[in-house]
């Protein structure tokens, strides 16, 4: 379980997150939604301790993020950041291999290679594994980054906008793969998603942030309504039900 208790965060006196308290059970897929600037990336980075927690507490299965040594934390959770600074003269296999670093600390063994091959296969990257990062499309690169996160073999995966750069076919495929990662590999996924309809179709839970506060949370079938989404994004949204999933219409 992820426990977030009274987390507040300010930058230069400006409140970014205000008293966020949240419980996320182990397993499944949680979609973190909300308008630009709501604080989604900040919350994820505090959860992974990429930034120092100023107020409140965050625990993963009782492990206090503020007090856990970095090497131990890297075996508990993996994070894909919104912007990932990486060199281009790396092959996709090398990139995915970086995910194993917390396990082997620079001396990969056969077990690490196995995990890398497993991740490449799961994310459909085997045929591209020898290519350099600057020789693949933005979508393929994005998929390799998610595969790297998976290869880290942690209970928790925090993914900041994993659907970035993906067309509808690749986005759907990645969401289905994330579902499999949760269902068959027993991992817990928290993903920032901009497209609410992917959240509606694939997530077990929605957590909505607005202006640094928790706006609402719950299963998609309960919380995704015209009123809630309209208020969250400040734009008219019509929600319909299609094949048992909520669908938000907001293009016209
Ligand atoms: N390093 C920073 N310095 C100043 N303001 C920041 C910084 N990082 C984020 N912010 C501000 O914090 C707010 C939340 O940002 P962020 O967590 O990235 O939102 P989201 O991911 O929901 O779009 C925004 O208003 C953003 O401008
Ligand atoms: Mg963000």
TrEMBL record:
InterPro entries: AAA+_ATPase, ABC_transporter-like_ATP-bd, ABC_transporter-like_CS, P-loop_NTPase, Siderophore_ABC-ATPase. GO terms for molecular function: ATP binding; ATP hydrolysis activity. Its main location: membrane. GO terms for cellular component: plasma membrane. Pfam families: ABC_tran. GO terms for biological process: iron ion transport. It is a peripheral membrane protein. The keyword Isomerase does not apply. Residues 2-236 form the ABC transporter domain. The keyword Cell membrane applies. It is found in: Cell membrane. Keywords: ATP-binding, Cell membrane, Ion transport, Iron, Iron transport, Membrane, Nucleotide-binding, Transport. PANTHER family: IRON(3+)-HYDROXAMATE IMPORT ATP-BINDING PROTEIN FHUC, PETROBACTIN IMPORT ATP-BINDING PROTEIN YCLP. Belongs to the ABC transporter superfamily. This is ATP-binding cassette domain-containing protein. It comes from Rubellimicrobium roseum.
């Amino acid at each position: 379980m992820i426990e977030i208790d009274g987390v507040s965060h300010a930058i230069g006196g400006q409140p970014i997150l205000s008293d966020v308290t949240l419980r996320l059970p182990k397993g499944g897929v949680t979609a973190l939604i909300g308008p630009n600037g709501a604080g989604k990336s900040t919350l994820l980075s505090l959860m992974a301790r990429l930034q120092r927690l100023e107020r409140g507490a965050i625990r993963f299965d009782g492990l206090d993020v503020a007090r856990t040594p970095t090497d131990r934390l890297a075996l508990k959770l993996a994070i894909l950041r919104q912007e990932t600074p990486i060199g281009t003269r790396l092959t996709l296999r090398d990139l995915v291999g970086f995910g194993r670093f917390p396990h082997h600390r620079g001396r990969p063994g056969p077990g690490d290679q196995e995990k890398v091959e497993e991740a490449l296969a799961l994310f459909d990257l085997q045929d591209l594994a020898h290519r350099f990062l600057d020789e693949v499309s933005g979508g393929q690169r994005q998929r390799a980054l998610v595969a790297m996160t998976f290869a880290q073999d942690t209970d928790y995966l925090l993914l900041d906008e994993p659907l970035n750069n993906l067309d509808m076919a690749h986005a759907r495929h990645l969401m289905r793969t994330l579902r499999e990662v949760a269902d068959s590999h027993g991992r817990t996924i928290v993903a920032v998603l901009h497209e609410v309809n992917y959240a509606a179709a694939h997530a077990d839970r929605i957590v909505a942030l607005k202006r640094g506060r928790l706006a609402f949370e719950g299963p998609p079938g309960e919380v995704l309504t015209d009123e809630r989404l309209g208020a969250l994004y400040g734009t008219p949204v019509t929600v319909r039900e299609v094949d048992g999933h909520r669908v938000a219409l907001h293009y016209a």
